[in-house]
Every structure is written in C-alpha cells, then in structure tokens.
Description:
- By secondary structure, the protein is mainly β.
- It contains no helices and 11 strands.
- The protein is globular.
Amino acid sequence: xxxxxxxxxxxxxxxxxxxxxxxxSGNISSASSLSWYRQAPGQEREFxxxxxxxxxxxxxxxxxxxxxxxxDDAKNTVTLQMNNLKPEDTAVYYCNSLVGRxxxxxxxxxxxxxx
Length: 115
C-alpha cells in the first residue's frame, strides 16, 4: 500500500499564497491520476484539482485560475500552488492517488485563510 504525506499548510491572509506538497512512498508514475481534495468544517469532502500521467489537469470551478496542480515524477511529488487565497479556501487539504482500482489518501494538511 502506498503512503502519501502532505505538507505546506499553514495560516495565511486573504490574497496570500501557499504551496502544498504531497510525497508518495511509491512511484507516482504508476498512478493513473493524482488529485487534491479538501474538506472544510461541517462540509463534505470536495474535489479541488486532478492531473493525469500525461500532465492533463482539471480544476474545480471555485479554484480555477488561482490554483495549479503539478507533478514531479523524479521526486514522487505532487504539488498544489495556491494563489489569491480566500477565506472560503480554509480546509484540510488531502492528496490522493489512483492506482488501478485502488485509491490512496494522505493524512491531510490544514490551510487557514484569515485576516
């Protein structure tokens, strides 16, 4: 079973930026897709961004134009660059990978956007 570890969360002011990283214990080239999700207090988990093996990326409408997902296969790392952060972005952010029929999740990293 693969293990995913997120990092880079923290407290930022509205309009600020953060870069989240997710390091996999396995080779991310084996994953058909790599994604970021988030869950705010009292809310359901929601999709944020996804990237496939070809580098094709997709985003939730709420973050499109502000967030960028990327992958570095040599470092087995997936990143999420978050710019122009809003209070509504406050949530625990989770990395996941899809390998065959299996879905792997990280422990999550807290992002808080507040003035």
